[in-house]
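User: Before I run my own analysis I want an independent prediction to cross-check against. Here's the chain; please return only the structure tokens and, at the end, one sentence I can use as a sanity check.
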Amino acid sequence: MKFGTVVAAQARRVPHRVAVACGPERLTFAALEARTSRLANALLARGLRPGDRVVLYLGNGLPFVEAFLAVVKAGGVVVPVSTRLVAPELRHIVGATRPFAVVFEPGGRAVVGPAREAAPGALPVVAGAGAAAGEVPLAGLLETGDPAPPPRLPPAPDDLMILYTSGTTGVPKGAVITHSNLVTQTYMNVAVWQLTEADRFLATTPLAHRIGLARVTCGLLLGATSVVMPRFDAAEAARLIDAEGITVTGMVPTVARMLLDHLDGVPAGGESLRVVLVTGEAFPVEVKRRLQARWPRVRMYSFFAMTEAGTVTTLGPGEQISHGTTVGRALPGVEVRVVDDQDQDVPVGEVGEILVRSGEPGRYTVMRGYYEDSAANAEAFVDGFFRTGDLGRLDADGYLSIVDRRKDMILSGGLNIYSKEVERALESHPAVAEAAVVGVPDERFGEAVCAYVMREPGATVTADELIEHCRGLLAGYKRPRHVRFVDDLPRTSVGKVVKAALRARGAEG
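Assistant: Structure tokens:
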């Protein structure tokens, strides 16, 4: 069940249908199949072997889609990376995956150059004009590649991509997603959300993240059209929905708020929409009400998903208000348990850690495991169930509510931010003795990063100086929005920081 094989079948079935559009550029399924076959063969000719990793440090656009599909057709493993990451963050991923190639745009050279020092043998491939000496133009690979279909892939290995997500220690870990994961999960979602090949999808979020990528891969597997926004803009999204006849779009709460704020002054629009998929941080019921008031005929589905576990639960159109404080019930084929510290199921209504299973890891929705990290895998799985690190409760009807995040993860604008990673960056400043980072309520982004900082005795440093210090260490969305200086931090009897107290303090502020 290879992703490229399914897309090739759609190219034979609907060759003249537009597969992907971004701005004025668009590719039909036939053109996408032909171009990605050439690129796949060019990579093979350059020495790509099955299982080799290829890092994509690309923004939203056709080059991302072409490179992604070409690499997996050649048997490689894609490592999509947000272009918001800075050099130290990218360097860690490049060093961990030892890629065959890094694909980037000229504007990313300043970040990619230092990061490639961790894997100097990686082929530098440039998408767009302006390749420097020693770099390989992506366009040149397309021109020289053999147009024949690339060699057929064997059933195993099945690894398709590695998506990096931080753990509780703040050290990024690579979740290995298989071809079976992506294809099976997509068709499970298609069945539950009632999507069809006649739909036209709008991707509003970065393709380097699973949510944005899922909109495009769903379209490709269905034989439907996907329209990709280079970056989100509320006015442009509203225009595209009407101009492109968009029927399905996905939103994180931040996107929904920004779009609704724009639409408040617009009398009509969005008549083509029939399905809105919402996920990310807990989706506020008041935002759901605004969406329903704006588009009363639209079917809204909200869902709880993770990079490692795919779609876990979903909440249907008739449940968005009546069960709006929950994340819905388990997707058919997905098992959800809530357990105590001894991994025993807790009674209905009680809080415990959420575990997820869907057959053997890597087979259906749950990842195969973390890339080359046996210790993390031993900790992450129990009896085939993946430990989400989230705390929740199940009611008598099977609806799941998320109570807290054991991993202290912050969700801002639909993006994961891990407190330990931010704390390490802050504590690398010589004036900082200790930092504790939590998420605090934010009207636009759902949550914002708030840092409680203890200075070294006698040291002086301002909030602006600390935020600037983080600029070279963290992507913009991870940097603290609020910095509060304290003389001490609330602690347990064994000295651990009580972040619940800090979150409560931040909410009050």
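Sanity check: The mean pLDDT is 92.
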